[in-house]
């Protein structure tokens, strides 16, 4: 994993989002694979922008954080009750909103590089 720097940012822009794409947009870089579900170097890897999706900052820091915490506790308790023998697979993703992307034209010379997910992807099933 290579950290984004000023010198390599332009190379990354050709293939993925950069930190600048999220700047001043009102969106957090929401984790698809939550960092709190990982340990050590695996946790560090969750902070890459290839594991991020634009998420409303208030929603990410409040409701989504509570949901991740609840799910992590449930999984930990379930695995402990199975003496650690269970395997868990969590599949995540988003549904792109064809009408909304960041950064906005008013704040960027390169607008619309990152698609914001549709609200339907946040439903609990």
Automatic annotation (TrEMBL):
Residues 1-29 are annotated as: Disordered. This is DNA/RNA non-specific endonuclease/pyrophosphatase/phosphodiesterase domain-containing protein. It comes from the Eukaryota. Residues 1-20 have a biased composition (Polar residues). InterPro entries: DNA/RNA_non-sp_Endonuclease_sf, Endo_G_ENPP1-like_dom, ENDOD1, His-Me_finger_sf. Pfam families: Endonuclease_NS (PF01223). Residues 9-118 form the DNA/RNA non-specific endonuclease/pyrophosphatase/phosphodiesterase domain.
């Amino acid at each position: 994993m290579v950290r984004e720097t000023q010198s390599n940012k332009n190379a990354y822009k050709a293939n993925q989002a950069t930190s600048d794409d999220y700047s001043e947009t009102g969106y957090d870089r929401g984790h698809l694979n939550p960092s709190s579900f990982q340990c050590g170097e695996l946790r560090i890897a969750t902070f890459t922008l290839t594991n991020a999706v634009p998420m409303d900052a208030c929603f990410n820091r409040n409701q989504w954080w509570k949901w991740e915490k609840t799910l992590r506790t449930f999984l930990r308790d379930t695995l402990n009750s199975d003496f650690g023998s269970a395997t868990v697979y969590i599949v995540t993703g988003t549904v792109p909103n064809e009408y909304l992307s960041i950064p906005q034209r008013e704040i960027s010379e390169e607008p619309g590089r990152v698609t914001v997910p549709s609200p339907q992807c946040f439903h609990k099933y």
